[in-house]
């Protein structure tokens, strides 16, 4: 049967390949955080989200334990998502600047969001084996997202994951606002991840983050 984005999504959601990640995502879903005790946690792998005709792909590390693992949508329900969707909105890729739950009316235009690893990992650190198991899903998504021209990698881990998918040699160097070109012509933009570790310390500011998406828009439209 020919592959499709819907089939990739279904296969991601049904995945139980990594025992450590399965155990952790389900444990978090049972124990919950006090602020979310009334939530029915998703506690499954989190698929990509966005416009199937997108020219921009935003690539992250993995779902947050009480963000995507709770809500079932990538970058939804946590501080990193607040930064990301705010930037997407200001750049014209999203219809609203917030992302709180799967049915909040958010939609993306010309953008798609995915992660290298689809389950929330303990301490936000997947093992190399877990990443290797999960990256074929990203490859399949890229095969279906035939219009992608630009990839924004949120953090060095995302850039490394993308390089592994493409078998890039030498491995591209990470640095905020650095740009690379993949063998198929896609442009890669590097950005610090909008984690609290970076945003609270001022390592990543709103103007710095907005500049990345403005540059993406420029590359897409040229």
CATH architecture: 3-Layer(aba) Sandwich
- Rounded to an integer in angstroms, the radius of gyration calculated over CA atoms is 16 Å
Number of helices: 8
CATH-defined fold name = Uracil-DNA Glycosylase, subunit E
Q: What amount of the residues lies in strands?
A: 5-15%
* Structural domain count: 1
By DSSP, the count of extended strands is 6
Question: What name goes with the CATH superfamily?
Answer: Uracil-DNA glycosylase-like domain
Order of strands across the main sheet: 1-3-2-4-6-5
Helix and strand element order: HHEEHHEHEHEEHH
Q: What is the CATH class? A: Alpha Beta
The largest β sheet comes out as: 6 strands, mixed
How does the helix and strand content classify structurally?
alpha/beta
Categorize the overall geometry: globular
- How many angstroms does the end-to-end distance come to? 36 Å
Are there runs of 5+ residues with pLDDT below 50, and where? none
- Average pLDDT, rounded to a whole number, is 97
* Helical residue percent band: 25-40%
